[in-house]
Amino acid sequence: MKRFDAIIIGTGQAGPPLASRLSAAGKTVAIIERHKFGGTCVNTGCIPTKTLVASAYAMHVASRGAEYGFSVPGGVQVDIKRVKARKDEISGRSNRGVEQSLRGLKNCTVIQGHARFQSSRAVAVNDELLEADKIFINVGARASIPPLPGIRDVPLLTNSSMMDLDFVPEHLIIVGGSYVGLEFGQIYRRFGSEVTIVEMGPRLIGREDEDVSEAVHQILQAEGIQFRLNAKCISLAKHESGVAVRVDCKDGSPEVMGSHVLLAVGRIPNTQDLGLDQAGVATDERGYITVDDQLQTSAPGIWALGDCNGRGAFTHTSYNDFEIVADNLLSADHRRVSDRIQAYALYIDPPLGRCGMTDVEIRKSGRTALATKYPMVRVGRAFEKGETQGCIKITVDAQSKQILGAAILGTSGDEVIHVLLDVMYAKAPYTVVQRALHIHPTVAEYLPTVLSKLEPFA
Ligand SMILES: Cc1cc2nc3c(=O)[nH]c(=O)nc-3n(C[C@H](O)[C@H](O)[C@H](O)COP(=O)(O)OP(=O)(O)OC[C@H]3O[C@@H](n4cnc5c(N)ncnc54)[C@H](O)[C@@H]3O)c2cc1C
């Protein structure tokens, strides 16, 4: 039995910075990783996919060379092995960086293996038993594989196995028209695949406002991605061309034939094989660890951070979980999950930056609100760049004048959204942005103009 002040299970986006803070505070820490250091974001999520987005974007711009005044002799062709090598290099650098920094920490023992609780104070890994009064779970999530008929009969791709592709699928069928599916769809369409996205719901990214979802649909459709919406009874079967996905949609052919199928229908937490019952750690019906506002689980002395607690599904929410836990424990700063404002981006091109409430949420809240929507085609910087797709949408509270929610679908939307997000955190009225002097020429310089066009929210 080895004793530590703290045990951390998993090296996702919260575990490593927490190990660093605890170590700096003079605590002894054991951190356990069963697979790749850095977890999903570093190895199979944000970082590698954003390198692919960057390659696909560069190709797309190059293919529009005539519009910008240049030509590419012989046309633009993907070299997928080099795209993959670039991805592997960038993702590998982060992976090695996480491992090296953990191994360099004072008082920190790095253990590779699968961790399982033996009690609320003890964790088994390999043949060792570790004990600590404080245990932090950062085990993340993985691609969900629902029991669709025929799912075991066909080779399936997930976001993880997509990372190993060193060829361009002839026809990639993506089951799932949400964030992960749309990003991969546009990437591979730009690399030259035929792409069909099959979505059970009546529209893409169903959590977003209908008009935003429709605009994204049109942008992707214009690039030649095919969609099958309302696919109620999805099943899979082998076919001579690869895979047949039966969609049973209202319109069109009941079957889509493709060479490969990527399943992007959500994530499930890595909590089944963790011995949580031995530790008295409760989960909800979907397996997410239930936590309070400071991320403590039902078992005293055990915290859950990142995707496994169901309170966020992003790198920034996981990192924020680390800050909340560390500040509560080490700085007596009583930070809470409920203080954070929802914010994220969808990394298609142009990107969608989102913060705060959606239209549906605002309607449900019963507030009196004012709203404004402005097309990117009227944003000078977008015009100059030749990237005029999308719009800026902002809704504010009519009484307090505080911003309630915003969506910026357009060039730099993932960056510009932070102007609004920070004003929301400051609980300042929108008039602060409206009266601010912004730099020309930028997308952000239009925010004051957009905010001067507020009208009653319907
Ligand atoms: C394709 C894709 C793209 C994404 N893009 C973005 C993006 O652009 N922006 C964004 O903010 N988010 C994005 N995400 C989400 C983001 O990757 C995750 O929210 C983020 O990685 C947070 O994860 P985490 O800290 O909860 O743990 P993870 O990063 O999932 O890490 C958990 C770690 O725990 C280890 N582990 C699990 N069980 C055990 C055990 N029993 N013992 C030991 N170790 C264990 C795992 O091996 C893993 O390394 C994307 C996700 C996907 C799938």
Overview features:
458 residues, six-stranded antiparallel beta sheet, 31% helix, 23% strand, binds flavin-adenine dinucleotide
Outline the structure in words:
With 458 residues, the chain is of the alpha/beta class. It has helices spanning 15-24, 39-43, 46-63, 65-68, 80-103, 179-191, 210-222, 276-279, 315-330, 359-365, 380-385, 413-425, 431-434, 447-451; strands spanning 2-9, 29-33, 108-112, 115-117, 122-125, 128-137, 141-143, 171-175, 194-198, 226-228, 235-239, 242-246, 255-258, 260-263, 267-269, 302-304, 343-346, 352-356, 369-375, 391-397, 403-409, 455-456. Strands 1, 2, 3, 4, 5, 6 and 16 form a seven-stranded mixed sheet that branches. Strands 17-18-21-20-19-22 form a six-stranded antiparallel sheet, with helices on both faces. The N and C termini lie far apart (63 Å). Strand 8 (171-175), helix 6 (179-191) and strand 9 (194-198) form a beta-alpha-beta unit. It is globular. Flavin-adenine dinucleotide binds next to strand 2, helix 2, helix 3 and helix 9.
